[in-house]
Amino acid sequence: MGKVYVLLKVYPSSVDVDLDSLANEIKNSLPHGITFGSYSKEPVAFGLYVLKIAVVMPEDTQGGTTILEDAISKISSVSQVEVEYVSRI
Fold it and tell me: How far apart are CA 66 and CA 34, in angstroms?
């Protein structure tokens, strides 16, 4: 069974969201079998930053990245989740 590297952009619900705490909350809410790799903060505009999160997940995950996007979207301080890059490793 192969693995897939996924790079996500996670937009916070406001500029007041602590991105380090949000990254930790995302890490703790990932479905079984998905591994949190790393994260960075990227400026977008007017003081707003997004989290760029790298995760590794099984290639044969039912529904692809949808399960991952849904789990992160359920967090109250998340406004939007975007899959930026997917690659088999």
Answer: 12
Q: Are 52 and 42 in contact (CB under 8 A)?
A: yes
DSSP state of 76: T
Q: Any idea what DSSP says for residue 75?
A: S
Only one residue has tokens 């939007």, namely 80
Q: What is the pLDDT of residues 16-37, one digit of tens each?
A: 999 999 999 999 999 999 999 9
The reported pTM is 0.91
Return the bridge partners of 54, or none.
7, 38
What is the CATH number assigned to the segment(s) 3-88?
3.30.70.60
Whole-angstrom Cα distance, residue 11 to residue 19? 10
Residue type, 13: S
SS3 state at 78: strand
Check: CB of residue 68 under 8 Å from CB of residue 79: no
Residue indicated by tokens 């693995």:
3
